[in-house]
Amino acid sequence: MKIVYQGIAGSYSESCAKYLYPNIETIPCQTFDECFEIASENSEIKAIIPESNKTTGNIGVEYLIFKYRLNIYEEIFFPINHNLIGIKGSKLKDITNVYSHAQALSQASEFLKKNNLTGNVRADTAGSAKYISEAKDKSKAAIASKLSAEIYNLEILKENIQDDNDNYTRFLIMGKDIVQPEIDKNKYITSFLFKLRDKPAALYSALSGFAINGVNMTKLQSFPEKNSFSSFFFLCDIDGHLDELKIKNSLEELAFHCEDMHVLGVYKAHNFREKK
Questions:
Q1: Same domain, 106 and 92
Q2: What are the pLDDT digits (tens) for 130-147?
Q3: Are residues 192 and 130 in the same domain?
Q4: How many domains, in total, are found in the chain?
Q5: Can you give the C-alpha Rg of the chain in angstroms?
Q6: Which residues are part of the catalytic machinery?
Q7: Residue 60 neighbours by CB distance under 10 Å
Q8: What is the pTM of this model?
Q9: The domain containing residue 202 runs over which residues?
Q10: Residue 225's pLDDT is what?
């Protein structure tokens, strides 16, 4: 199996992929769209996609989830520990400008403010590290992973500079083939998307089945259909396995109110969900 990720070598997506599958071949892609497209065409290639961050919220891949409708095989909540990295020999006191992805800069905003550092937005964290290695300027640094520092021969000037030490990103492992695990004693998540029929109180009516059947909804996110401000899709996660009667009944009730509905996957709930 191979796995595609957005960014270049050293990204947090690649770090997460190598944590899950130490010996897997990773393939960088310029865009999330490219990741989804490659995975949708080859069942031997999976995609690792950051879906949301505990600190800064959704990553913004919802439209691609709807567009490609890849199956979700696994979720992982991966710790995002940001590091300030610069060229060999540089010191924190030398740094004036810091480069990284907008979310990384936001997640380390208190550190930047405390040290009077100017944040500069670039496309991704690993790309910022590569830029620093090429610039060879002691006044510049990047916010990126330890893997980036290793790959681009940079020095870690300060570890764990994120504002929240409980900073996690939820990644999804996705692919072309539909695979559903058999129900057992593990806790499961069922993910799906839907578009409601155009009628008054449609969302209220559609969700009533989950309340009646005692199903816990852990995610409900709306996003507009392409080229429309009045038509919306919803992305939803619920606790439970598709083969449970209460899940089946809830989804049957939901389908009655929908003009489009698609189950994205059934997979084990990551143990991070048990954290208080």
A1: yes
A2: 999 999 999 999 999 999
A3: no
A4: 3
A5: 21
A6: 169, 171
A7: 13
A8: 0.92
A9: 188-274
A10: 80
